[in-house]
Amino acid sequence: MSSNPLFRWLKPTDIEKVSALQLLARDVVEGVTGGIHRSRHIGASVDFKEHRPYVHGDEIRSIDWKLFGKTDRLYIRQYEDETNVRATLVVDQSGSMNYSGSRSKQLTKHDYAIRLASCLAYLLVSQQDSVGLVTFDTAIRKHIPPRSRPNHLRVCIETLAGSTCQGETDLGTVLHQLLSICRKRGFVMVLSDCFGNPETLFKSLSMLRANYQEILLFQIMDDDEVDFPFQNRTLFRSLELKEQQLLVDPISLRQTYLSNFNAHQDAIRNGCKQNRIDWIPIRTSEPFSSVLATYIAHRGQA
To answer: Phi/psi at 201 (nearest 5 deg)?
Structure first.
């Protein structure tokens, strides 16, 4: 990969990180899809319309081989409004994504997000769909428009490999900014811990839905955030506002924390249901393959 002109300016350590991401994505995607017997194009229309004669330049995958066996002639199966997916991966890079607990094997939520995003990008491009990338904290930091070329996949993975997280975030405001970017019908795949105001979040998501975007919300959390396992007196520091810290007895706060956390999750769940948004809550201790298989299975039922 280092001989590719896209990577000539990168340091050896950067190239190693990009290569590792792409290798991980390939291994996970091939491992998951290899055991799933379904259409290669998850996002394509399946409403058959008619046949037409094959002409030079048509994709071989569109040939109806059963009809060829009967007629000894090549015909293409045409579908109603057939189109490949235009997907935009939206990756949270705020400070809260920099958390890793004792059970995550030193993998931060941001580490997990960029690896999962790489797997999704690899899957989409491998089935000839278009994938784009948006990274953000309080505002959109980078925007790569959707493309389906293999070289474009390397650009997306390179950007993910070189990304860092810091500062605050305003997910609702950022998603509202996507309205000017995602103008054509497609997918918006959000990878975030979703630790913000659910009301603002779903106001923006509902506007994206009205703009003909299908939305998948991958909520990435550390196990510690889900079950709050702390026992001893602990100093909690904000990952977004460095000056904020608090020394507390976690046992006395546990029930209050879990009550607030569960209420937040209920708001996310209900908001997704009301707006017909696919919600996939994830813990960083979960294998990428399990998350990807869940996504593919869901798409296969859609």
So the answer is: -60, -50
The mean pLDDT of 130-146, rounded to a whole number, is 93
Per-residue three-class SS string for the chain: CCCCHHHCCCCHHHHHHHHHHHHHHHHHHHHHHCCCCCCCCCCCCCCEEEEEECCCCCCHHHECHHHHHHHCCCEEEEECCCCCCEEEEEEECCHHHHCCCCCCCCCCHHHHHHHHHHHHHHHHHHCCCEEEEEEECCCEEEEEEEECCHHHHHHHHHHHHCCCCCCCCCHHHHHHHHHHCCCCCEEEEEEECCCCCHHHHHHHHHHHHHCCEEEEEEEEECHHHHHCCCCCCEEEECCCCCCCEEEECHHHHHHHHHHHHHHHHHHHHHHHHHCCCEEEEEECCCCHHHHHHHHHHHHHHC
- Give the mean model confidence (pLDDT) for residues 270-286: 94
| Number of residues assigned to the chain | 302
Q: Give domain limits for the chain.
A: 5-34+83-301, 48-79
User: Tell me: domain 5-34+83-301, CATH 3.40.50.410, correct?
Assistant: yes
pLDDT value at 28 more than 90: no
Do the beta carbons of residue 235 and residue 245 sit within 8 Å?
yes
Q: Inform me whether the pLDDT recorded for 9 exceeds 60.
A: no
Rounded mean pLDDT, 185-190: 92
